[in-house]
Amino acid sequence: MYRRSPLSACLLRIQAVLLGMLLLLGGGCAHREMPGPIVSRVSFRGNGGALDGIGDYATRTAMVQQASGSFSWLAPSRRVSLSQDTLVLDAWRLETWFAHRGYFDARFRAWDVITLGPARRWRGPLVRIVGYVEPGEPSLVRSIELSGMDIVGRPLLRLLRAQAPLQEGERFDLDLLKESTGLVQARLREQGYAYATVSPQVTALPEERAVDVVLSAKLGPPCTFGAVTVDGDTTIPTDLILAEIEIETGRPYQLSRLAKTQQRLFSLGVFSVVNIVPDLKMGPDGQPVDVIPVQIQVSQSHFRQIRLGGGFSFENARQEISTSATFTHV
Questions:
Q1: Alpha carbon distance 173, 161 (integer Å)
Q2: Closest to 215 (Cα-Cα) out of 167, 180, 170
Q3: What are the phi and psi torsion angles at 280 (to 5°)?
């Protein structure tokens, strides 16, 4: 009668365990959900070139669905999966984005998802997304009116018109409108109108391919600088700080003097934080106060500092190790 040796019995048990593990793993793989498609690239048809401001690169900024980053085949974290729900919403986002750039009749037609490569064990299939758009004809800025600013004088109004990013005769662009609004408001505040606010009003006439723009200003009173105070964690005497500032009590209010003061205090090298805070407030009668106190908030840094650094470079058969050390005493 044939009898198995203890070693043979042990090997049979090991084989049985391995076979069971393979069956379990195989069953798990059979029921494992396959990863979704990976977006390799997003492009468009019909949107125009880069010189028109609506090329592929600019148009993609309006989307939430993006493509995978460079070298995503090496870094799985840079892979971006396809979301059909996101694409549906991106179609609406794109039409809105085109309208903000003067293409009020823009229409998004369809998405085309093209498979570039099959799925792998570690990722889903590679796809390319192509969007089809019809921008239509853009609307041009027919007129720009500056309202509520006559008191500042015609020379300044002409300068504001010339420097504004949004110009008559050019394609309407919502971003350029915001920049123009900010520029006009900053210029008015530089002229002493600390409470000046500018709000845009836009009338779009797509059937005429025209847009009329009005920049309305509320100036408030002309203002002057009031008392200047220094607050913060510092051992430097206040008189030394005030000697470096560009703000003089009684002088016309100007944003540029606030910026220069901050820059000069930073350049001393003794402060880690410098905040210049004008106190814009209303008086008891509910009207803006025309004398603007200014508070300088500072935080002192270390007078003595040591900075250490190092680096390593490799070029052909040459290797270099570099170190640096600097000591500053302000």
A1: 16
A2: 180
A3: -90, 115
**Cα–Cα distance between 169 and 144 in angstroms, integer?**
10
Distance (Å, whole) CA 141 – CA 257? 35
Measure the CA–CA gap between 18 and 151, rounded to whole angstroms. 91
How far is Cα 23 from Cα 31, in angstroms, rounded to an integer? 13
Q: Please write the tens of the pLDDT for every residue from 214-234.
A: 999 999 999 999 999 998 888
More reliable by pLDDT, 51 or 159: 159
**Helix H or strand E encompassing 91:** helix 84-99
Q: Which two tokens stand for residue 166?
A: 């949004």
- CA neighbor of 228 nearest in space, from 205, 245, 240: 245
Q: Quickly count: other Cβ atoms within 10 Å of residue 80's Cβ.
A: 16
Backbone angles phi, psi at 207, to 5 degrees: -65, -25
Q: What residues does 232 pair with on adjacent strands?
A: 298
Query: pLDDT tens, 21-71?
Result: 655 554 444 444 556 899 999 999 998 777 778 899 999 999 999 999 877
pTM of structure:
0.72
